[in-house]
Amino acid sequence: MEIDVNEMRKIDAEMHGLPLCDDVMTFYYDETGNCGKLILTDDGVNDETALECDFILGGVAFDGEQCPADTGQLLQDLKLQSSIKELKFRHMTRGGKSFLEFMGNSRVTTYMEWLHNSGLYIHYATVNSLYYGLVDLVDSIWEYRPEFAFNFEWVQYLKSELYNFCIEYLDEVLPLLYKYQFPNISREDKRAFCLEFCDFIQSYNDDTTEAGFGMEVLRQMLKDVGRHGDISLLYDNDSNILVSEYYAFYLSRCYTYKNAKHYFDFEKVIKAKMDETELMNNSVPFKNYEFVESKEIELIQISDVFVGVLSRVFRYLDNITVDDIEEIDRVKHAQAIENLQKLHELIIRADRKHPMLIQNANDMRLTQMRMVKLELLIGGTV
Predict the structure, then answer these.
(1) Which one of 9, 112, 188, 373 is most buried, counting C-beta atoms within 10 A?
(2) Maximum Cα interatomic distance, the chain, rounded to a whole number of Å
(3) Nearest to 306, CA basis, from 86, 49, 29
(4) pTM of the predicted model, to two decimals?
(5) How far apart are CA 177 and CA 193, in angstroms?
(6) CB 208 within 8 A of CB 89
(7) Which Pfam families match (predicted)?
């Protein structure tokens, strides 16, 4: 399969309303939360942790080709045992069982201080696997009725409402999807699926609320599609596989940052998929990435720690309330809060460099609340 990098990066930039980034940079990556495939089963899904934790592809980057950071100093300061030949996230989890105890421990503190002062940018793409698997339903409606996809924010709003509705009634929605082998709806079952999903929405939805309004809009459009239209994106796919792979996120980093060099931690399945794809630049074969062994590249190891820390932070933020934050002992957990402050500053710095350094294939509301809660945690205003 051939992909025109210039065409793809232009489409992405226009969709998100962002400028192209032509900077020469160097990126290093690792990943966490890769469940392989997220599959519907007769009693739910094959991997429930994939419903709780994002897939994250991320790491560190810098301008140009010369790294400004002293990676050897970090490894020395972490005081790892001599038997440890490769830095991993698991080496950060010393002492304390709670998140805040973890976030304030000496190794995480050493790591965050070094990263904050290193001159490196952080970058990441997060993927909520359930959200990613569901939203083709909304996109199929726009395929049939593009005149109602008023703007990017409207589409994201409806996707968010669909995701949150399905999360609330997950025990009912998963069997419904499984019944019709979603996302591989047969053309003969298209009408039955759409109308049964409409009935499901109507049974639980309160359309007098803001969220309920969004779901009622979706219900009416889905009813129209079921009776008169098509759900083209939900045909001819693998039955019951909500997420078949994550390699598209590797690929998108390569064409978004076309003038950069990308070093990915070696992943056999991902590499095989990437090898099947030929990037083209003005009709000329183009390759700006390489898969490398993490044990040989310290910046990949540092990326492993970063995505591990980020995953723990996001999972914590997703499961606490504003009231919980107000109850935190800020004296006891002062070091953890300081380290979270450094993470927040790194995120802001990356976003100012270029917004696509921080990418979320995720529920808009969930993503926004993560930043709200993080800013409350560090004592900022929201």
Answers:
(1) 112
(2) 68
(3) 29
(4) 0.94
(5) 9
(6) no
(7) DUF3800
- Residue 242: both structure tokens together: 């909500």
CB 259 within 8 A of CB 24: yes
Phi, psi of 263 (to 5 degrees): -115, 115
For residue 107, give both structure tokens: 């190794």
Do β-strands 261-265 and 25-32 pair in parallel, antiparallel, or remain unpaired? parallel
Phi, psi of 151 (to 5 degrees): -160, 175
Contact present, 268 and 274 (Cβ < 8 Å) = no
Per residue, the 3-state secondary structure of 238-298, as one string, reads CCCEEECCCHHHHHHHHHHCCCCEEEEECCHHHHHHHHCCEEEECCEEECCEEEECHHHCH
Interval 81-139: pLDDT, tens: 888 889 999 999 876 689 999 999 999 999 999 999 999 999 999 999 999 999 999 99
CA distance 378 to 330: 9
